[in-house]
Model the fold of this input.
Amino acid sequence: MAEAAQSGPTKASAGPSRSLRNRRLMTHAGIFLTLIIAWELASRAGWLDPLFYPRPSNILNSFWLIYFKNGNVWEHLGVTMSLVFMGFVGGSILGIVLGSLVGLNGLVRRFLKPYVIVLEATPRIAVAPLLIAALGFGATSKIAIIMLVCFFAPFINTLSGVMNVNAEKLELFRSLGASKWQILRKLVLPDAVPIIMAGERLALTAALSGALVAEFIQRDQGIGSLILVYTRNLNMASSFACIFTLTILGFLIFRGMELVDQYIAFWKYEAGRERVSAKRRRAMRS
Amino acid sequence: MNVERMPNHAASGEVVVSGIAVGKTFADGTVIALDNTTFEIKRGSFVSLVGPSGCGKSTLLRLISGLITPTSGQISVHDTPVTGPRRDISMMFQKATLLEWRTSLENVLLPTEIAGTPTKADKNRALDLLKLVGLGDFAFSFPAQLSGGMQQRVALARLLQTGADILLLDEPFGALDEFTRERLNTELMRIVAEVGATTIFVTHNISEAIFLADQVFVMTSRPGRVAKIVDVDLERPRPLSIQTSPEFNRLVEDVRVTLGAV
Done:
């Protein structure tokens, strides 16, 4: 079967060779180090105002202080991340459920559409002070703000996912005598999974921003209020340490979501297909 | 269904699909897709519907499948009127329309899942069908890991998994290259003969229509109707080379004249 040979050679030539990758990595590290050293020297030479642009060595020192010597960042980080998690889960579920309902029901869609457009045009974060006024200070209003900024991407993506079902697949299901429920469960929802996951990625990134805004407003706990406190005390090195912490977190979140996507929407990835294919084969044998 | 399939036995079998004065109009009666068509199709026969675009061949197929209902007249399958999709009829489309998140085996099992819960026997049957279409080693591959031709083979196995004895194929290999299509056509003939199904095959390729069929329904457009039924008295199994024989060319000529005469 000559048709089958296609997946073979791609694995070996998946990317640039190892030596080329190493060389590129070295180049990146070199440029990064040069930038850091230039920053440090510029600061020491007095070209950069150390008040607003703290030296890299000071930032590094602040990392050590807030993580180990004082260890005060952990608590705030924990608070922020649990808010992000709860707001993200809540906003996502709300978005996916409402998106499915609106997408599957033409009548609901017709009446809701103008409001969706209005909501889409409004910067969601503008509503944050109103949410605090309504729900009071504390975790509840923070989670509500995060849910608000998280809601939209999953909502819109679920909506378009369940609405744009392939007409030919739908005809296949109809010709097989499938019920509405079977069409939903076996065709519409699985078909929408990749686009819903794309919405979830956007939502999780938005959740982190939402949490920071909520903490900026409420200034009680969390990494956002910590940044606020350090900046007000002109402890810029510690502020930078917090910001870089968020950079790393954002990156980890992004990568984490990619990994989750490779598991949930596995059929979109070559590695995922090969993994699940092998798994199903083993399951059948035993 | 184990009756040995004989060439040109179509004239003697029992009628399984019939239409009486079937008409279908679209757009509030302004477009006549199919006009006053009467036909009979016998058990185990292979019928090709051939004609230009707009001759109503796909419409006729969809009417038989129950996906659409006639504006006038009636279609019966196994002596009962067709009112909607039914289990004794199964349809295959131009595109494989496989579900990307399911393996070949799971795709083949879809009709069984829709009818109920698949049993161990259903699974074994699906595996056998995948072997029958030459994909025994690809039961656990996902559609994206298969070529276009292999995807259509999976769709063919899924078609057979329904257990329907009437198979409707709407230009099933039309999107594939010439070589793959010829090979799959040859296999299709072997497979439907093996399972003893009644097959209705839509195509716009005259040679393909004749090569596969016991009977060719030659259809013409405006309004769509069956202009002539050509009996194909060629022996089975048919090698690809039969397409250069004088008898074959006489049949091609016959179809061409019918199509050109309108």
Observations:
- The radius of gyration of chain B is 18 Å.
- Chain B touches chain A at residues 65-67, 84-87, 90-91, 93, 95, 97, 99-101, 103, 105-106, 110-111, 113-115, 134, 137-142, 144-147, 149-150, 162 (CB under 8 Å).
- DSSP finds eight helices and ten strands in chain B.
